[in-house]
Write a structure and sequence with these properties.
Blueprint: H1 2-14, H2 36-48, H3 52-65, H4 70-82, H5 86-99, H6 104-116, H7 120-133, H8 138-150, H9 154-167, H10 172-184, H11 188-201, H12 206-218
């Protein structure tokens, strides 16, 4: 349960990629219909409508027109990831980062794709870069912890969860995921406490009730 959830958590928390494109030409625009900005805007509208497959040819066109556009590479990476073409998504995120090395959304999504491909050591390294760039954001620590959980580096993961909780103690996922590590280590009392905190912050978190029930069963309660 914990391993499956950890990958879904990375994907659900970290793969929701921004579709906002800064500097897009809007109403009154005089750009040609095949300009990279307008092609990207059309593609984004399709993606917002869950028509990602239809957006892919437009994104291919945008990349062809502007091969050194970090945004075009990033958006095509988002689309490739959405349709399950993970290796192609990884190539586009890498190209985006070649053009704009410290772009946080591309670093984030690259790490997500590596985790989906079960390349956890590489994903951890990218999350580490993200943490270095943005050390006050708890999400990077939490998702780096998930990579270490997958390879059973529980103590390393717990250190990252401690930092995530220091930065954002009101985020139920931080408590839930640390509880899952304690559960894997059979540290029942600590797991019970963290699951309870997650429930306190999110009373609709059904999996926390389920896992707390398992923990309490193990404790004889």
């Amino acid at each position: 349960i914990m391993n499956a959830r950890s990958i879904r958590t990375i994907a659900s928390t970290l793969s929701v990629s921004s579709l906002v494109l800064a500097g897009i030409c809007l109403s009154g625009c005089t750009a040609s219909e095949d300009s990279p900005a307008l092609v990207l805007e059309r593609a984004k509208i399709l993606m917002q409508r869950d028509q990602t497959a239809e957006a892919v040819p437009l994104l291919d066109q945008a990349v062809t027109i502007a091969p050194d556009s970090a945004e075009a590479r990033y958006q095509r990476g988002v689309a490739m990831e959405a349709v399950g073409a993970l290796e192609k998504a990884l190539l586009d995120y890498n190209e985006c980062l070649r053009i704009s090395a410290d772009r946080k959304d591309a670093l984030n999504n690259k790490a997500v794709v590596l985790a989906k491909l079960k390349r956890f050591d590489e994903a951890e390294a990218v999350f580490t870069r993200l943490v270095e760039i943005n050390p006050e954001e708890s999400l990077g620590y939490r998702n780096r912890a998930l990579c270490n959980v997958e390879v059973k580096k529980y103590d390393v993961a717990l250190a990252d969860y401690a930092k995530a909780l220091e930065l954002d103690p009101k985020e139920p996922a931080n408590w839930y995921q640390r509880a899952a590590v304690y559960q894997a280590q059979q540290r029942w009392a600590e797991a019970d406490s963290d699951f309870s905190k997650a429930i306190e912050l999110d009373v609709e978190l059904a999996s926390a009730y389920m896992n707390r029930g398992v923990v309490r069963y193990r404790m004889g309660d």
